[in-house]
Amino acid sequence: MVANQNSSKRIKVKTLGLIFLAALLFAGLGIIAVTSFLKRDASSISITWQGFQQSRSAKSQIITALWADLGYGGMIHHFKNYLLRHDEVYYNSAQSKLEAIKGLISQYQSLDSNMKENQALVSIEQTVGRYEIALSTIKTLIADGKTTREIDKIVVIDDAPAIEALITLKQIYSDQSDGTSPLIERNKQLSEMRHVLGFDGLIHHFKNYILRKRQADAEKTENDLLRLNQVIKNMKGLNLNNTELMAIDYIEKLMNEYNSALIKTKEMTLSNATISEIDQASQVNDIYALNALTTLEREITTQIEEEAVKMSNTLNRFENIILMVSVFLPFFGVVFIGGIFWILKVRVIDPIGQISELTMQLAQGDLSINIDKNLIADDEVGKMANALVVFKNNAIERKEVENRLLKILEITPQAIIAIDKNFNIQMFNKGATNIFGYLEQQIKGQPLDLLIPERFHNKHYEHITNYMNTKHPRQLYMGQRGEILGLKKMARNFQR
To answer: N or C: fewer beta carbons within 10 Å in the chain?
Structure first.
């Protein structure tokens, strides 16, 4: 009886074989499922980082910076203003931008560039050299008492080679991206906006119209305004956040101001007004639009950092899935799971764990991380590690640029105070400290009311509100209100 009972409890060899085969099949299906998940998420990371690599690569940054330093708010802007107004401030600004452009050209040349790129850089460099000579010539001719019109005829420069070269570099960058990433599309539109506003764009043609009174320059300016309007529409269609939309509104206001200035310039040209009279009547305050462009660039950088956090979360999912598999597979044999786990751990788990940790450190601002060269290989993990290297290098470059900007703001003698939408102080440079008596760490985060006598609070905010809501903000320049009463740290009123 006992023997019969033991016999009934045994599992047949055939059944064991079927169970083992079923277990192997189930394990195989599990491995296939995990592999599918890994490939899918690796593809997702590839798409996410494509936008980052294209929008923040070293070359794309230099191309964007060249358009900025050459055009609106850059060299050509200050060059034309110096020619029109004979103010040394514009001479110094133009000279500074020329040096910056030469530095950018040197940076680009230090990268791996093809013959077409090098030829374009030479053309830009030659044109910059001509502008440098022309700038010194203008200074000499002003000292000799020459008129603006006489000077302009002497220092005319053919911009066509540089314009063609810039377009060539821009096209090379565009060819490298397929436009599938929102970050790529935003960078393209922002680059186009820089182009339309600056060198061979709105500011260039408008200043030439004032100087030379040629109908062709007026028509080019009108065309630039139409192009700018289209770029603004394109940007608004990209699901922008509130900060970006506010920046676009400032640029749209600038477009309307230049449209009004163009109409005024046409009228005064027909009435034979002098160049100086026309320039004085058609001046536009560019500071808010320049700040808006900076805001748009900063927002793109912020979104890139957010994408880095998303990538880190995806990597964590990788690790969790693989760890689950490593717990489940032992049921099907120590040898089987041992081999699989060893491969996964050495080839995937450890590298992904390292990349995940490094990515989180980068997202938290730690740029001192060391990325193991062994992580970089010709596979999905290697591509993620390579993307991490690119992210780190570009983050360092961005940090250096921000540090240089902060240093410039710190040594600027003028008081510079930045506030957020709630009128709380976010930046307070040394110039402001010298005037108001507060250190930045004392005043940062405090309301702007602290620097304004109480009896002027309502009037001051009413002025800001009116400025934001007016259709013609150029009529409300804050610097044209005469003396402004402020409140120092010792609670004494003073006038600026």
So the answer is: N
Contact 202, 228 (CB under 8 A): yes
Name which of 34-48, 67-81, 278-292 the model is least confident about.
34-48
Query: CA-to-CA distance for 352 and 228, rounded, in angstroms?
Result: 45
Tokens 């026309």: give the residue: 278
Q: Does residue 419 sit in helix, strand or coil?
A: strand
Q: Specify the pTM.
A: 0.53
| Cα 48 from chain centre | 17
Query: What domains are there in the chain, each with its CATH number?
Result: 2-47+306-409 (no CATH), 57-284 (no CATH), 417-495 (3.30.450.20)
Please state, in angstroms and rounded to a whole number, the distance separating the CA atoms of residues 419 and 50. 34
Candidates 335, 334, 333, 352; CA nearest to 34 is 352
Provide Rg for the chain, Cα atoms.
31
Residue 386 one-letter amino acid: N
Give CA separation, 485 vs 110, 449, 496, in Å.
51, 12, 7
Amino acid 169: pLDDT: 86
Distance CA 414, CA 218 (A): 36
pLDDT, tens digit (0-9, with 9 covering 90-100), for 95-146: 999 999 999 999 988 888 889 999 999 999 999 999 999 999 999 999 999 9
pLDDT digit string, tens, across residues 150-180: 999 999 999 899 989 988 888 876 655 544 5
63, HSE (Cβ side, Cα atoms, 13 Å)? 28
